[in-house]
Amino acid sequence: MKSSVNNVLILQRISYILVAIIVGFIFHICNIPAGWLIGSLVTGVCCGIFIKQLQFNHFSFKIALAFVGANISLLLNLSTLKVVHWLFIPLFITIFITITAGYVFSIVLYKSTNYIDKITAFFCCIPGGASEIIGISGQYGADERLVAAFHTVRITFFTISIPLIIGYLNPVPHVPPLKDPTMSFNESQVIFFAVVILMTILLDKTFNIPGGTLIFSIFTGFLLREFIIDIEHVPRFVAGIGQALIGALVGIRFDRIILNRLWRVGPITLLIISMFFGLTLLITFIFKFMTGLPYATSLISTVPAGAAEMSVTAVALEVNPTIVATLHIIRVISIFLLLPFLLKVFNHFNKTNV
Predict the structure, then answer these.
(1) CA 155, CA 45: separation in Å to the nearest integer?
(2) Are 244 and 25 a contacting pair, CB within 8 Å?
(3) 3-class SS at 252?
(4) How far apart are CA 114 and CA 254, in angstroms?
(5) At 114, which CATH number?
(6) 28 contacts 240 by C-beta, under 8 angstroms
(7) Sign of the alpha-carbon dihedral angle for 234, 236, 242, 245
(8) Could you give the CA distance from residue 277 to residue 271 in angstroms, rounded to a whole number?
(9) Which of 72, 106, 212, 318 has its CA 20 to 30 A from that of 328?
(10) Which residues neighbour 9 within 8 Å (Cβ) at sequence distance 6 or greater?
């Protein structure tokens, strides 16, 4: 009996992923910016709220992210990496602004509702790596369910809005699928992706660091491509499937449970998300002014959303994914390392203002 139930659940998950990929493809051929990503994301949100609340373990997301990282590694070039260090000072200035704003938002959230305690409010508004923040929040006594809800709605909102903003301001030339000159997918490419995913999972298990899956997959893929396997141009639909997988796994998190938790918190949720959006526009202009990078690159590189989701967006919109992934990984690690200090300051502030 238990085995048959498990088989049904597996079949439902597989069916959902296939539908999400198909919808992503439809959005893509309709020339919607980042169509693979947004189509699958919308499918996940609709499925989670109106149809079926499916659960995927964190390992599934790691495999999808490793697949995306392998695609990014094919676009990596050393000349881009050589200029990344010039972006560190502007990046850390924007990180400081983001942390300060998140700190202020958490105080607003805590003071505006009797439903959320101060530790939970703190973790809800710190825009670090969502998985890492959610995972560690319970150790400090926060309500993991509310933390997950806030991070889910923040990442879902930015993953939908940012590609649309950039896509319409800076449109990418549309290549019809049947006119893609690189439609073949050969044996060496299959081996490449399989090895990158396997090595990434092993490294991530051995060295458990924030953003590790993306780091290990990008650099494993780069080393394989440079020194071991000769990879020809990979068809565009391969990267599209990776985007659809991430969208499907992120979108399905936004289900009825998440919606009910946010409903109990009230309109302050919308206010916090709106403030994050305003913050994003501010730090984008600061970063663009200090670096001279294009607006699209500055926006995707500094938006307080998930490293995985924004890296996928960069691939979809052809906005230098190497810079975007690198800067987001640095942001996630920096915030994660500062977390104990930030929590101590937050507790001290609230004790002196009771």
Answers:
(1) 12
(2) yes
(3) coil
(4) 24
(5) 1.20.1530
(6) yes
(7) negative
(8) 10
(9) 106
(10) 54
Q: Which long-range contacts (CB under 8 A, 24 or more apart) does 319-323 make?
A: 319/166, 319/170, 319/294, 320/80, 321/72, 321/75, 322/72, 322/75, 322/76, 322/77, 322/80, 322/81, 322/84, 323/80, 323/84, 323/87, 323/293, 323/297
pTM of the model: 0.81
Q: How many CB atoms lie within 10 A of CB 309?
A: 28
Number of domains in the chain: 1
234 torsion bin: left (phi>0), alpha (psi -120 to 50), beta (else): beta
Instruction: For residues 73-91, give the mean pLDDT.
Output: 77
Phi and psi, residue 305, nearest 5°: -125, -170
SS3 content of the chain, % helix, strand, coil (to 5): 80, 0, 20
Q: What is the CA radius of gyration of the chain?
A: 20
Q: How deeply is 112 buried, as exposed, middle or buried, from its count of CB atoms within 10 A (0-12, 13-18, 19+)?
A: middle
195 lies in which domain range?
2-352
Determine the Cα–Cα distance for residues 169 and 165; give it in Å rounded to an integer.
Answer: 6
Place of tokens 């069916």: 15
Q: Tokens 């394989």 identify what position?
A: 224
